[in-house]
């Protein structure tokens, strides 16, 4: 097991470096001078040259990348142009809120997805299966930002039950686990949960169907095992793949939260990214994307290891 | 001997089995869900294409006195938007841009990704490793994040949004194409073609492309659903089309402020995105099960 973990970690290193390279290059595919956001409109040539040297933009690209990577490894992602605060501080504060939202959404989405998937796979081709698969396909096809708007229309505008935007009373960014704060979490969490719900349902349904049609299930039944115990075998066999899909979905929720966070003004990494884009705050844009992508890579690594831990066949492969 | 083979030849057409694609076509045509989806899509595409000849109101013509009319107002069957423009006209005209920015990236990615995947799968070895490891880097980003990162860095605009989505989908299609190609590569008929002196380009084009296109096409059809949601999502964020152009994502964005006054009109553009997305998803599912002849 240890050798497997070590090997997986070694594989991740080139990925991490490439991810950093992509994030670094993002700033350089930007049309025009990367300085354009910092430079006053009436800046003189000398000032521009001075700033270019100060930011290191006059050096060759590989050197710039090396320096940037070196600083990033030491936790220095530069300062936000808009606020002047360190990028890493800003990003980590925002990521906390995104993690809260993603975990709440995962609890809802995965629970429903597993439930619907198992039931649909077990009662394949019956009306129960049709209902569950219809819900699943609607879940993966719905534009979630629109669903968010519809939720706000129903529960905030029409019924006035839940707040429409923000993450807590008074518009403060501080999160707390009490009802006053939870009220703000409900709508964004439900909205975020529909895509993972649909994907997990579809995956688990297919897995359950496949496993139930295998010979060993027939043998278990012939042996006289109760249906409930047969089901335990199904769950055991479906677990590694289901876990991998759920891990990936959790990563998508963390990294792809920008649309939902924009709809609900949820103060997470997505909203931060949104403001970085529209204020042309390139260091903040670069830093946020790097942190989110590294989260995603780390999560994938954890999923791989967890998968190998519960399914010994993977290690050998 | 001669007599026997002659009878066999004559008998052949009578027992000729229906071809694979003909069978698949018949199976899809019998699937009610797929046909219903195809019908809805044809309707949306045709109305978007023929919009100027449908006798609709001018989608750009606003009016300060008839802003945010409700659904069912005489002359404005689907109400009016925040600038008093006819919603029905804007939804139908909006299909033009929305469908283009949603579907073009998948078409581009289909062409590019299939080429990469085919070459990687057929040539194998170091080239395969080089292509597939590069692809892995893009898999290290959640697709929404990658699309928004590229779009955000390039700046707002239709072309940039198409470019960013194409970059997001190329790796996914390459991966599918590579795995299908690797499966076909070692089959006997490829070996036979190689033995009879066909060059790699001929083998890829004549013998392999036809066998790998089916599954890749089905996958790409399903991707259109994602692409529609993401493309409209970029516009929703302000990274796609600019006002006053009618486009579903942008319309959702500008109508967001209207949800307290006329909520259901504000939700309409999303219904269009949802409809197109779910139809492509169901159609992709229908094609997949129709092509799975074993069932």
From TrEMBL, chain A:
The keyword Transport applies. It is found in: Cell membrane. GO terms for molecular function: dipeptide transmembrane transporter activity. Keywords: Cell membrane, Membrane, Transmembrane, Transmembrane helix, Transport. Its main location: membrane. InterPro entries: BPD_transp_1_N (IPR045621), MetI-like (IPR000515), MetI-like_sf (IPR035906). Residues 95-303 form the ABC transmembrane type-1 domain. The keyword ATP-binding does not apply. SUPFAM superfamilies: MetI-like. It holds the Pfam family BPD_transp_1_N. One of its GO terms (cellular component) is plasma membrane. The chain crosses the membrane at residues 9-29, 101-123, 135-161, 181-200, 242-264, 284-306. It comes from the Bacteria. It is a multi-pass membrane protein. Belongs to the binding-protein-dependent transport system permease family. This is ABC transporter permease.
């Amino acid at each position: 097991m240890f050798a497997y973990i070590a090997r997986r970690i070694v594989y991740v290193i080139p990925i991490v470096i490439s991810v950093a390279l992509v994030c670094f290059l993002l700033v350089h595919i930007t049309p025009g001078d990367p300085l354009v956001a910092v430079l006053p409109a009436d800046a003189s040539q000398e000032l521009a040259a001075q700033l270019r040297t100060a930011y290191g933009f006059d050096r060759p690209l590989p050197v710039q990348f090396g320096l940037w990577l070196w600083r990033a490894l030491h936790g220095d992602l530069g300062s936000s142009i808009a606020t002047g605060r360190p990028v890493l501080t800003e990003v980590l504060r925002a990521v906390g809120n995104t993690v809260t939202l993603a975990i709440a959404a995962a609890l809802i989405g995965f629970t429903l997805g597993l439930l619907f998937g198992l039931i649909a796979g077990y009662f394949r081709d019956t009306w129960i299966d049709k209902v569950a698969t219809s819900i699943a396909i609607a879940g993966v096809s719905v534009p979630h930002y629109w669903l968010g708007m519809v939720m706000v229309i129903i529960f905030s505008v029409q019924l006035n039950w839940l707040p429409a935007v923000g993450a807590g009373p008074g518009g403060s960014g501080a999160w707390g686990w009490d009802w006053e704060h939870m009220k703000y979490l409900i709508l964004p969490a439900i909205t975020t949960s529909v895509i993972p719900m649909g994907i997990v349902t579809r995956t688990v349904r297919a897995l359950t169907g496949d496993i139930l049609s295998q010979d060993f299930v027939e043998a278990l039944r012939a042996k006289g095992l109760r249906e409930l115990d047969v089901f335990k075998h199904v769950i055991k066999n479906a677990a590694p793949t289901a876990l991998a899909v759920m891990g990936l979905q959790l990563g998508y929720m963390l990294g792809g939260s920008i649309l939902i966070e924009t709809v609900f003004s949820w103060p997470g990494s997505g909203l931060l990214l949104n403001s970085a884009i529209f204020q042309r705050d390139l260091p903040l844009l670069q830093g946020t994307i790097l942190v989110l992508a590294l989260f995603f890579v780390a999560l994938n690594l954890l999923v791989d290891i967890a998968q190998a831990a519960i399914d010994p066949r993977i290690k050998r492969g | 001997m001669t007599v026997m083979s002659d009878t066999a030849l004559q008998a052949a057409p009578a027992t000729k089995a229906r071809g694979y694609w003909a069978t698949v076509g018949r199976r899809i045509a019998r699937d009610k869900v797929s046909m219903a989806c195809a019908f809805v899509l044809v309707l949306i595409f045709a109305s978007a294409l023929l919009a100027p000849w449908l006798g609709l109101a001018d989608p750009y013509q606003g009016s300060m006195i008839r802003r945010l009319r409700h659904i069912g107002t005489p002359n404005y069957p689907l109400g009016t938007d925040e600038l008093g423009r006819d919603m029905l006209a804007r939804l139908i005209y909006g299909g033009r841009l929305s469908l283009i920015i949603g579907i073009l990236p998948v078409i581009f990615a289909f062409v590019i990704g299939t080429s990469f995947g085919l070459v990687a799968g057929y040539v194998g070895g170091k080239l395969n490793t080089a292509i597939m490891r590069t692809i892995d880097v893009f898999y290290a980003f959640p697709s929404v994040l990658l699309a928004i990162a590229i779009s955000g860095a390039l700046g707002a605009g239709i072309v940039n949004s198409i470019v960013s989505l194409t970059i997001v989908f190329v790796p996914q299609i390459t991966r599918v194409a590579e795995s299908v190609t690797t499966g076909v590569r070692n089959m006997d008929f490829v070996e036979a073609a190689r033995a009879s002196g066909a060059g790699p380009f001929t083998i890829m084009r004549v013998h392999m492309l036809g066998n790998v296109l089916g599954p890749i096409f089905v996958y790409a059809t399903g991707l259109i659903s994602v692409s529609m949601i993401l493309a409209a999502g970029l516009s929703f964020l302000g990274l796609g089309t600019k006002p006053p152009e009618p486009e579903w994502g942008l319309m959702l964005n500008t109508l967001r402020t209207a949800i307290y006054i006329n909520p259901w009109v504000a939700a309409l553009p999303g219904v269009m995105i949802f409809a197109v997305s779910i139809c492509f998803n169901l159609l992709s599912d229908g094609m997949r099960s129709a092509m799975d002849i074993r069932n």
